Amino acid sequence: MSNNLLQFYTSFKGRVNRRDFILKFFLVSVLGSLIARGLDIFLKYNGLSLYGINIFSSIWTLIFIVPGFAVTCKRMHDFNYSGWWQMAPQIFLIIMLIVLYIFPKIGIDMSLVMLICMILGGIACIWVLSLMLMVFFRKGTNGSNQYGPDPLKMITIEKTI
Question: According to a count of CB atoms within 10 Å of the terminal CB, is the N or C end of the chain lower?
Answer without folding.
Answer: C
